[in-house]
Structure prediction request, 237 residues.
Amino acid sequence: MTDFEEYIRQSEPGRQQKAYAWRTAIGLQAVDGLKPSEYLKDTARKHIEGEIDIDEAQKLIKSYYQSKSVRTLENDLFANHSWYFRNALVRANYRNAVKGVEPDMKYLVRFFRNLLLGENNELRNRYMVIDAPEKWKESVDNASPTSSPTSSTNQLYTSNTNIRKLVSAIGETPKSIREILELLNLKDRKNLLEYYVMPAQANGFVTLLYPDKRRHPRQKYVLTVKGLALLSSISKQ
Prediction:
């Protein structure tokens, strides 16, 4: 994960967005104890650095999982939905100011919730099409998973209301302490750090944008991949 954080901190905007998407995609595997392959990480690096385009990345991922001699549920999910995975990466990177389209991580999160939590979210490419015909658009029912984490034993779940509020406030955009205070309608910085930020960091939902330089002048807080998964759960409730 360190390599992706470095891309996010130091690269130009295009690479940052790609790295953010790949960090979510690969990092969500780690939440459930799955070890991402070096092949997948190398494919991510090549795409971020511009050595291959998104179509080539998709083909490499598909061919890799089809070549696996041992078939598993995880392998089959990647192989059977590699085109969806490719398009989900595109939507996680795509921005069009004219059409008011911003990068959207929910499709990647949906894919990995199926993989890690055993949910049955519909993985349909047509849901990601910009300005799609009405008949292609996703219904409200389909946007909800068939199951959701409701137990404290689930690694993506927390009953701590302060953590959930903080995760919702930060969302998908890094936020400063001042911004978080305003969003939560709080005034006491110490109270925010002690009862919101520190528990969220300790449980792996939030991290610093510049973890090696805590007093960085542009320091902000961002959601980890675990935090993004929790955000997705909250938004579906």
Remarks:
- The chain is about 55% helix and 5% strand.
- The longest helix spans residues 13-31.
- The two ends are 29 Å apart (CA to CA).
